[in-house]
Amino acid sequence: MAEADEGGKMSFFDHLGELRTRIIHAAAAIVLGAFVGFAVAKPVLAFVARPMVIALRAAHLEDKLIFTHPAGYLNLVITLGLYLGVVIASPYVLYQVWLFVAPGLYKHERKALAAFIVPTMALFFIGIAFAYYVILPYLLRFLTSFQGNGPFTPLISIEEYFNLVLIVLLGVGAVFELPMLIFVLAIFGIVTPQFLWKNFRYAILIISVVAAIITPTPDAMTMLIFMAPMILLYVVGIGVAAMVVRRKRRTQEALERERQR
After folding, report:
1. How far apart are CA 31 and CA 198, in angstroms?
2. Above 90 in pLDDT, residue 98?
3. Once rounded to an integer, what is the mean pLDDT over residues 173-189?
4. Helix (H, G, I), strand (E, B), or coil: what is residue 107?
5. Which residues fall within 8 angstroms of residue 51, CB to CB, at 6 or more apart?
6. Half-sphere exposure at residue 29, Cβ-oriented, CA atoms within 13 angstroms
């Protein structure tokens, strides 16, 4: 009982006051992060546009992105600055969330939550990096290979391009959370490594359907590029589930030995 819930000693209004404080701190961090985001938005835009520029050059096309509204570029800079502000402030925002929920958790629960958050964020950013450096260049090369005939030439809008980039990056980042999803399901006993391995062929079918949905092009090669990391992550998830089951078995055996004493 030494690890009793300290958060339970706070009144309802104390909790509201604490929540208000954490929200204010998080909002202030996002505002400050947005100022930093605005300051670096232009070089970040150039970095994000690089795969498109390379693909246009490889297709012997003009390596420029266009905007069709007078404020199109400015709107994009502002939007990206806000997004970057959220990303820059996210560690501090998560820290504020942690300060609010941690007093109501037991020590082992705090350790488990901390151990869950770090790999979750790491997998998400690894997925984004994989999408940017592997999937996006191939995808853009494929798309720019269809140049049309006669008087037709592609004019790539910056708004449409960055919408495509956002969908691909966030989609692949979310897909890379598959091992953590399996980890949670294994903790609650919903899945086991034996179940996952037995239904591997059905998992391949589901992965194929998901890849077909999130792949923005109809070619099989792009779909396979999306499928490959998903299959690998599923296999990693089987290993994670096995680790969870083994740890739960050891814990149960330790409790049985304690009871026998």
Report:
1. 49
2. no
3. 86
4. helix
5. 132, 136, 137, 140
6. 18
pTM of model > 0.85:
no
CA 27 and chain centroid, separation: 21
CB 163 within 8 A of CB 76: no
Rounded Cα–Cα distance for residues 245 and 186 (Å): 7
Residue 135 clears pLDDT 90, i.e. is over it? no
Alpha carbons within 13 angstroms on the beta-carbon side of residue 31 total 6
Distance CA 132, CA 44 (A): 13
Closest listed residue to residue 177, CA positions, set 125, 214, 124, 226? 124
Residue holding tokens 């339970």? 8
In three-state secondary structure terms, 168 is helix
Tell me the two tokens of residue 69: 């509204």
Task: Report which of residues 176 and 210 the model is more confident about.
Answer: 176
Tell me the angle at which helices 107-130 and 158-175 cross, rounded to the nearest 10 degrees. Answer: 140
Mean pLDDT of the 210-217 span: 75
CA 72/CA 65 separation, integer angstroms: 11
Alpha carbon distance 70, 127 (integer Å):
34
pLDDT for residue 84 is more than 60: yes
Contacts of 234 (CB under 8 A, 6+ apart): 178, 182, 196, 200, 203, 207
